Amino acid sequence: MKYPSIHRPPCFWLAASLSSWVKEHWEVFAMRKELSPFDGLELLIRKPVKSLFRLLDEPFEEFAKSAVDVYEEGNDVVIKADLPGFKKEEIRIQLEDNTLSLEAKREKDEEVSERNYYRKERREVYVREAITLPAEVDRDKAAAKLENGVLIIRLPKTGPTRSGTTINIE
C-alpha cells in the first residue's frame, strides 16, 4: 500500500525550524535564571535580529556617503569633502558645465587575528557626489588639495552667483 504524500502548510515548516532554533539556543534561558523569562526571550531574539540587519546593510557598505560642504570664500567657490582613508590616486574630480563630479574608489582590507584564528576580507568602498555649482567658475585655475582625509577644491568664480527663481503654486 502506498501512502499519500502529506502537504504541510508553510507555517508548519516555520514552526519546526523555530522549534529547532529555540532548542539550539536554550542555554540563553538557562544562564539567566535570576532574571524574568522575558529577559531570556529578549536576548534570544536580539542576536538573530542584529544578524539580519547586518546582512541587509552589507550590500550597501560599498557605497559610502561623505560629508560635503559647498560655500563661497572671497572670489572662490570652495568644496570641502571628507574622504578618510583615500589617497589622491584613488580620487577623480571632473567638472562639466556647472556640475562638479567627485568619485573616490578604494579596496578596503580587513584583517582580524585572534589566537589561532585569522581572517582577511576585502571590500570596495565607493564615494560618488555630483555637486551643482552656485556660480560660473574658471576651470583653468581650479585647484584641489587632499590633507588628513579632507579634500578641498577651490574654483575661482568668473561670474556672479546664480540665484534661484521662486515658483508660485496655483
TrEMBL record:
Keywords (A to Z) from UniProt: Stress response
Superkingdom: Bacteria
Record-linked CDD domains: ACD_sHsps-like
Pfam families from the UniProt entry: HSP20 (PF00011)
SUPFAM superfamilies: HSP20-like chaperones
Family assignment from sequence similarity: Belongs to the small heat shock protein (HSP20) family.
NCBIfam families: Hsp14
Name of the protein described by the UniProt record: Heat shock protein Hsp20
Organism lineage string: Bacteria, Bacillati, Bacillota, Clostridia, Thermoanaerobacterales
